[in-house]
């Protein structure tokens, strides 16, 4: 384990490089079990180097379909990290987990994360799955994606509402009628809802 950490310290550049982070995480995952990914992920997360922490987060996301503790750690601990770049990796790790278990099977979990008390958890779900309708299941069931996202239109966090609105905007490029049918029903006298509405309707020729 120490040898692997020494190796990472040698290959991870000082400058932030997501490509290398993702590559090293995938490389480890391809030759190790979920248990090993969990153990290494927990160890790497303790590093002072945030990029090594990020590799650990990816490994926990890969392990989560077999190791529930991995998913719990992502949701309850990683979500409290102060570095916004780490929160971006949390979103990607969550999406990797949803992919592993199948997006259709992940719908209840996605809904749970979207309603979590921590805004970083809510955003990890909304941001991680973008573009939602490029994902299996949601590609064939865009209305489910629209419903899950629209349920957060009054979210207390501006940071989350921005992610929700942008995710709906993504969907509107391919399914403008479905997004229109949803958002034209909203009461935009609320500033929170109006923020999401303005983002979601950005590419529509005829806004509600």
Oligomerization state of this entry?
single chain
Unreliable stretches (pLDDT < 50, length at least 5) are none
Helix content: 55-70%
Gyration radius, rounded: 18 Å
Strand-and-helix sequence, N→C?
HHHHHHHHHHHH
Beta-strand residue fraction:
under 5%
For the sheet with most strands, the description reads:
none
What does this structure look like?
- This protein has 208 residues and is mainly α.
- It has twelve helices and no strands.
- The radius of gyration is 18 Å and the shape is elongated.
In short:
With 208 residues, the chain is mainly α. The protein contains twelve helices and no strands.
Give a quick set of tags describing it.
208 residues, mainly alpha, elongated
Give the SSE map.
Elements: H1 2-11, H2 18-30, H3 34-44, H4 50-63, H5 68-76, H6 84-101, H7 103-114, H8 119-128, H9 142-150, H10 158-172, H11 176-183, H12 191-200
Helix pairs in contact: 2-4, 3-4, 4-5, 4-6, 6-7, 6-8, 7-8, 8-10, 9-10, 9-11, 10-11, 10-12
């Amino acid at each position: 384990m120490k040898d692997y950490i020494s190796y990472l310290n040698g290959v991870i550049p000082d400058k932030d490089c997501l490509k290398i982070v993702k590559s090293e995480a995938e490389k480890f995952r391809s030759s190790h079990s979920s248990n090993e990914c969990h153990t290494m992920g927990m160890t790497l997360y303790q590093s002072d180097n945030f990029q090594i922490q990020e590799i650990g987060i990816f490994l926990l996301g890969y392990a989560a379909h077999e190791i529930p503790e991995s998913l719990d750690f992502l949701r309850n601990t990683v979500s409290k990290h102060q570095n916004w770049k780490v929160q971006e990796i949390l979103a990607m790790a969550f999406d990797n987990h949803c992919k592993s278990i199948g997006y259709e099977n992940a719908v209840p979990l996605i809904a749970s994360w979207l309603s979590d008390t921590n805004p970083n958890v809510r955003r990890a779900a909304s941001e991680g799955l973008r573009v939602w309708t490029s994902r299996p299941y949601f590609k064939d069931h865009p209305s489910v994606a629209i419903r899950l996202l629209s349920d957060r239109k009054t979210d207390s966090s501006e940071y989350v509402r921005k992610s929700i609105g942008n995710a709906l905007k993504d969907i509107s490029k391919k399914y403008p009628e479905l997004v229109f049918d949803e958002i034209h029903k909203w009461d935009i006298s609320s500033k929170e809802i109006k923020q999401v509405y303005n983002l979601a309707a950005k590419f529509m020729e005829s806004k509600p």
